[in-house]
Amino acid sequence: MTTDHDPQTTAIRAGRMHNDTALAPVLWASSTFVAGGVEEAQRLATDLTAPKFYGRHSNPTVADFQNAMADLEGAEDSRAFASGMGAVSAVILGLCSSGDHIVAQTQLYSHTQLLFQSVCPRFGIDVTFVDGTDPDAWEAAVVPGRTVLCFAETPANPKLALVDLERFGAIKGPMTVVDGTFAPPLIQRPLEYGVDLVIHSATKAIAGHNDAMLGVVSGSEELLAWIRGFAILHGAVASPFDALNGIRGIRTLAVRLRQQSETACALAEMLESHPGVARVFHPGLRSHPQFDLAERQMALPGGLVTFDLVAGRAAGRHLVDSVELAQLATSLGGPETLLTHPASTTHVGLLPEELDAAGIGEGTVRMSCGLEHVDDLERDLRRALDSFA
Ligand SMILES: Cc1ncc(COP(=O)(O)O)c(C=O)c1O
């Protein structure tokens, strides 16, 4: 359903191609489909987009989620995966070959970084890491004729550093890929800046209720045809049930993102004024080093807030243990407010110098604001902060 509507309106009705007269998204739980004869079976087997052939190729509910995502991104096509990492790894391994070169940023989700550092070299793919906040560094690292892909994440996990999408999308030569997990399409649409592919861990805000593992890649038909061909061999297919939850999440994405952004702004300001907090990172704060860029390329600042505690590791671990309303869990973008201590969890596999490069300290805490009342969250956070002696 391509329309002239605002994406918020598109989101309400997108992803219903296989619905017949049902208003709500329909779950097609079948792993395979009966062909009406050998001619049809042959046609379905060779059309990799056919939604009713075999579940590893596609599925009507998964296809509906993909269509909804393509509509929201302004993309020609999308492909869903079993997780965000399924999408990231299929893009890298589906599009790069031995002898190729990738430019990626140092500020990355830790497992994406591990993929670049430990898997890519095994396949003869070289990766150069650059400071993603420096637009000149991207271009300087491109090796003409060898660099096939530039991989950005914006805002980046966990310090919410931004990549200038206009400059990134204008890089000539390699394909440009953005992991936009922290800023779903109602906040930011990288394809509008000339970026070739946008990836989301839809496990997060898009499905939005902490009940699905789901990834998605969107872009041109041509690139998606390559990715789809590889994805069928890769096998990290999205489950129809998770895709259903993806369509369910898309319908309320706009209101959830607005509420979470509002709460994050209020809590970020409270944290900035607390003596136990050394530094707060949130794209909506004037103190964010890229505040102007956030205003230009993000419709909302988003629900993530990251902060460094003055008293370091002990304070970080104490805080995540002593909140009562916010919960200690690894994920983001859902209805529940979640805290993580990256140095102990999401980034525990990184060496000290890698943590430094990613700007993660021992006292860094990441908060994903949920949908609880902001006053309750503020009280909870303040009490936990005040309790550290
Ligand atoms: C920016 C980013 N990309 C990718 C992923 C991987 O997503 P998933 O956990 O759905 O595999 C995450 C997970 O936290 C993430 O934060």
Tally of domains = 2
pLDDT averaged over residues: 96
Q: For the report, how would you describe the main beta sheet? A: 7 strands, mixed
Helical residues, percent: 25-40%
Q: Cα-atom Rg, whole angstroms?
A: 21 Å
Query: How far is the N terminus from the C terminus?
Result: 57 Å
CATH superfamily of the largest domain: Type I PLP-dependent aspartate aminotransferase-like (Major domain)
Write the CATH architecture name of the largest domain.
3-Layer(aba) Sandwich
- And the CATH topology of the largest domain? Aspartate Aminotransferase, domain 2
What kind of assembly state do the chains in view correspond to? single chain
Overall 3D geometry? globular
Uncertain segments are: none
Identify every distinct bound molecule in the structure, by name, code or SMILES.
pyridoxal-5'-phosphate
Trace the largest sheet across and list its strands.
1-7-6-5-4-2-3
Helices and strands, in N-to-C order? HHHEHEHEHEHEEEHHHEHEHEEHEH
State which percent range the strand residues make up: 5-15%
* CATH domain class name of the largest domain: Alpha Beta
Structural class per helix/strand content? alpha/beta
Number of helices, counting only DSSP H or I runs of 4 residues or more: 14
Number of strands: 12
